[in-house]
Amino acid sequence: MNYYEKELEVITKSNRLRKREVFDENLIDLASNDYLGLSAKQELFKKAYSMVLEKKYRSPKASMLVNGYSSIHKEFEDRLCEVNGFEAGIVLGSGFLANISLIESLVRKKDLIFIDEEYHASGILASKLVQGEVVFFKHNCIKDLEEKINIHNISGRIIIAIEGVYSMGGDIAPKEFNDIASKYNGILLVDEAHSSGVIGDNLQGWFDYYNIKPCLNHIKMGTLGKAYGSYGSYILASEHIITYLINRAKPIIYSTAPSLFDIALGHVGLEYIISHKEVLSKNIKDNQRIVKNELGIKTDSLIVPIILDDNKRVLEIQKVLKQKGYLVGAIRQPTVKKAIIRMIIKLDVEPKNIKEVCATIKSFL
Fold first, then answer.
1. For 174-192, what is each residue's pLDDT tens digit?
2. Is residue 349 helix, strand or coil?
3. How far, in Å, CA of 309 to CA of 252, rounded?
4. Is residue 326 helix, strand or coil?
5. Per the CB 3.0–4.6 Å rule, which of 30, 95, 109, 178 could disulfide with 223?
6. Spans in the chain with pLDDT lower than 50
7. What separation in angstroms does the CA of 212 have from each of 183, 218, 228, 352?
8. Residue 347: C-alpha distances to residues 155, 283, 330 (Å)
9. Which CA distances in Å does 230 have to 41, 75, 80, 93, 312?
């Protein structure tokens, strides 16, 4: 019996059916979040492998609060704090787990969390688990956020959740969110999954981009599965908040500690970004310039969304580009409101290839 046949028929007819596919490795990748191309660097893989190999135990074995916490975890947390200017940090198995940990545990009774309407799906899911009240504000709209803060009678804490760079639009959250958080004594939670490693003078993300010195009301969440070329995530905050999360966040308490190899690989990725920040920053600007010249689209990140609002059309463009040897994202509902081609101008892609992809997309437009 096909229990969900009707649902699948509806998805298929609307050209929204998702499938897993093992893509040809020879395709030039402009679809993934491996922004800096670190996943292809064997020297980083070998260095991380050596870090884990020298340990007696090479898997985490248990949760962090039993005996799964390794010196590999701690050394990476300490280095992240040093580089980003936060008091304390903790690593987790994924960005999805990090958002569940933060939002579900931080928002208690009488508290109120204000979330950008385009916040990641993990945060939206977590918001359904909270004890306090949840309010969504218009995307990147300071005015709408402040109006909604003022119409609520808030007796508890205020938490504001934004992303540094938004995964589908590639746009950066305005600095004024920090001003609003300070004005109303609120906690500012910044999901830096797509901004760490991509923006800022030191390529450390949103706080770095605006030269904001981390304060006690700031929380930075970042992932390793994007610019850092690994898998996993981290949360940086005050010592007080990290201690609270260790004692209240269920994914931290009840999950096996993150993979030692993934954390080690994230660590060597971080060190690579730090030591190569000048050339990486130059290459980022060069790729942004190509897209501006070829498509007339300005991006401050490495994400280039081309809005088509036609599910069938984006699949056609993706197919044509695959035939030419390129892979781009064909993103449809419910991930986005209107179907888009999502091109990632990764640093390991040659400028001539980016130009050819742009020319092909432009011919469809």
1. 999 999 999 999 999 999 9
2. coil
3. 39
4. strand
5. 95
6. none
7. 15, 10, 22, 36
8. 48, 7, 20
9. 11, 16, 15, 11, 33
